[in-house]
Amino acid sequence: MNKQILLKSRPQGLPTLQNFNFVESDVPKIMQGEILVKVIYFSLDPYMRGRMNDAKSYAKPVELGDVMEAGGVGEVVESNSSKFKVGDIVSGMTGWQEYSVLSDKFVRKIDPDLAPISTSLGVLGMPGLTAYCGLMSFGKPKSGEQVVVSAASGAVGAVVGQIAKLKGCTVIGVAGENAKCDYVINELEFDDCLNHRDENFKSRMREVCSSGVDIYWENVGGITFEAILPLMNEFGRIPVCGLIAHYNQTDLPVSKDRIPVLFRNILTKRLSLRGFIVWDLKDQEEEALKQLSSWVLEGKIKYKEDVVEGIESAPEAFIGLLEGKNFGKMLIKTAPKNNL
Amino acid sequence: MNKQILLKSRPQGLPTLQNFNFVESDVPKIMQGEILVKVIYFSLDPYMRGRMNDAKSYAKPVELGDVMEAGGVGEVVESNSSKFKVGDIVSGMTGWQEYSVLSDKFVRKIDPDLAPISTSLGVLGMPGLTAYCGLMSFGKPKSGEQVVVSAASGAVGAVVGQIAKLKGCTVIGVAGENAKCDYVINELEFDDCLNHRDENFKSRMREVCSSGVDIYWENVGGITFEAILPLMNEFGRIPVCGLIAHYNQTDLPVSKDRIPVLFRNILTKRLSLRGFIVWDLKDQEEEALKQLSSWVLEGKIKYKEDVVEGIESAPEAFIGLLEGKNFGKMLIKTAPKNNL
């Protein structure tokens, strides 16, 4: 049997368990050019909140009654493709389920001897590539510059900050818990990390960034953005990668002068704001993956995973992710006994 | 005697005549490396409103009691420089006055046989360069793309739109009077031009831009920006050149959801917003001026000047400019009888 999590209803604001449906169905059949994958890990990422809305965006929404969308990694258990054989480890868009039928066109083979296969969903997967390609293309870090990274202990932010350090920048993280800040400072070796829930967050940020901010990596929006905007230096760059603080917002109290303040900053400081999605940077993926893999193997880039066991736990884990309760790359391990 | 307009007090909101002081003083003496210029035209531009504030910006404010800042063009009447001789026509930062002492380092010689000297303050000066360099560097127009230009009949907007047409784009202007819209359509040959004061402006904009907007040239901010943001196509570019609608704002009613809407658009459509100032693009000036001059001589780029005679009229003309009352590049002609 195939265990699956379906989208039952569209959330208003933060999703609840009632928005999801857990079902068991037959393991699906495969056609020519397809493979059947037994999913070992699938990934939970903030972008999935967008897919739950019935709104035009860069990707089409998940339809009601469909399996929730996710990248996953697993073992080929049946193959109707000359490209993959039974026993291969592959990653692709498996969805929130235990068995997934994938076209051999949209699957990547993973070498389990190179690194733990879960990294293909994190530091050596979409989040790592997002960090590398976005920072290089739109952040353009130069040695000696000051970089602020929001969601600094998260899957993307942790990699952004570590790359910026490798490029000779001073890097300040922002996270939502003191334990995360400690990890960012002590393990990831950022120069500092502030808790955006602290009362003195804005004034502390001003102190820590007394020479201004050249690159602000935008993962979250909200008050973090507000605190950093006035600190931006001339010719500052703001790659807009995500907006976790806004994903669940149905209504937002905004002080009246924010848009003018934003634009005044953009104009007078010649800021650059650039939204992007990792797919847009496909041509950089190969080089990025090579560079990231070697940094990970050399121990220059560290990563942390937050693995929850059992597909049934996915909805709760996902809601927690949107509230910032995860600590590291959020993964669901569907097969608790698997040793990979 | 030298007639001058000084900054008397800092405006709250729209400047009034009381913020300026008209004085007569001795014609100043020049030192080594300096020239004395009898100003023929000086330029009035929206950016000058920013200089009247006592706020940190990309340029320092005009001090109270100082001559208002302006680019101007005039004749050298005394020279202590080997680079310029009496009778030369030069352009430089003359200020709002009849006689100006300029260092020979910051002055450009103008050939009065090539084009009317007033163009050195408009289509072949700062506004034209702003249009050319900004559009090429940050707009990056491609044939077949849809371009919207705010303040379309203004000194910068008119050039932006005409260049975009030369590059094969469909170009829609936005202006604040029907007469301006007519001029933009009939003389500048934009594909269309809408009046932002029209009741149906937003819905008309949606109709006219039914295939979306690839480049929005931001000169004004305010409701024009709001109308166009939802129409932006993926990978759209928004060069932020000016924000006339905001310059006089001391308080602005903003609907609550604008910042989140802006950021959602930036992210999901991968928009690029880039503030810039023409000084930042100095290295492109020579090529830009060559190209613009040849287009102007070939009649491919048209321009319109709004010349007001007499330095005493400058404050009123400037206030009108900020209200959109000018029609074409706003210039003050200090010497009414001069035939240049």
As for the CATH topology of the largest domain in chain A, it is Rossmann fold
| Unreliable parts of chain A | 251-257
What global shape of chain A is seen? globular
**Structural class given helices, strands, pairing of chain A?**
alpha/beta
Helix content of chain A: 25-40%
| Count, helices of chain A | 10
- Going by CATH, the architecture of the largest domain in chain A would be 3-Layer(aba) Sandwich
- The chain-level mean pLDDT of chain A equals 91
Based on the structure, what is the oligomeric state of the protein chains?
Answer: homodimer
Task: State the main characteristics.
alpha/beta; 2 domains; Quinone Oxidoreductase, Chain A, domain 1; 340 residues; homodimer; Rossmann fold; six-stranded parallel sheet; 15 strands; seven-stranded mixed sheet; 10 helices
Task: Explain briefly what this protein structure is.
2 copies of one chain form a homodimer. Helix content of chain A is 27%, strand content 24%.
